[in-house]
Amino acid sequence: MSIRVVVAGDHQLVLEAFAETLNGTDGLDVVGLATSYEAVMPAVERHRPTVLLLGESTMGGKALRAATDVRSAHPWCGVALMVGAATPAVVDRAVAAGALGVVPKNARLPQLVTTLMGVAGGCLTVDPALLRPAVAGETALSVREMDVLRLTAGGASVKEIAGELYLAAGTVRNLTSAAIKKLGGRNRFDAARIASEHGWL
């Protein structure tokens, strides 16, 4: 099954050429384009992509806000950010905004494809050297684990969570089990409570 991608940036012609290149790659299907901040959310809602690819320096500097908006409203959609320079500070801001992937604009196509596929699978796909060292007391939960616990806290069943996040029920159970183990919870609801009390949801 192809990974559905919406690409967002400032220039229609550039986006169309970029989309053509990605569509020529096995496993990727560009289903929509957005050329402004205001067009991003409607494009995600209309096309329901697996991944939203955002240009960091585009949309009047609102790319990070767009990433946060999309992740909050549609947690099933992974976000990848293309940046001018992938520095630890840039990566830190992108991950804090909800992006799962960060790739520099000078990257070669195989690196971008790898990033999109990793994000589609719910994995943080960033050069490890650019990640900020963990601080004592910070959550070790992955973004997907937090998504699952956030929905659990709202009373959703495993089947409902799987449907909302476009994951298999078995994947949801695996993510839940991992989160329970990391947090020392008695069950998934207890793990959601612990995560919520720590402000991680």
UniProtKB/TrEMBL annotation:
Keyword tags: DNA-binding
InterPro entries for the chain: CheY-like_superfamily (IPR011006), Sig_transdc_resp-reg_C-effctor (IPR016032), Sig_transdc_resp-reg_receiver (IPR001789), Tscrpt_reg_LuxR_C (IPR000792), WalR-like (IPR039420), WH-like_DNA-bd_sf (IPR036388)
Species of provenance: Streptomyces pristinaespiralis (strain ATCC 25486 / DSM 40338 / CBS 914.69 / JCM 4507 / KCC S-0507 / NBRC 13074 / NRRL 2958 / 5647)
Top-level taxonomic group: Bacteria
A GO term, aspect molecular function: DNA binding
Stored SUPFAM superfamilies: C-terminal effector domain of the bipartite response regulators (SSF46894), CheY-like (SSF52172)
A biological process from GO: phosphorelay signal transduction system
Response regulatory domain residues: 4-120
PANTHER family tied to this protein: TRANSCRIPTIONAL REGULATORY PROTEIN DESR, TWO-COMPONENT RESPONSE REGULATOR
Ranges where the HTH luxR-type domain occurs: 134-199
UniProt protein name: Two component transcriptional regulator
Gene3D superfamilies per the UniProt record, alphabetical: 3.40.50.2300, Winged helix-like DNA-binding domain superfamily/Winged helix DNA-binding domain
Classification via Pfam families: GerE (PF00196), Response_reg (PF00072)
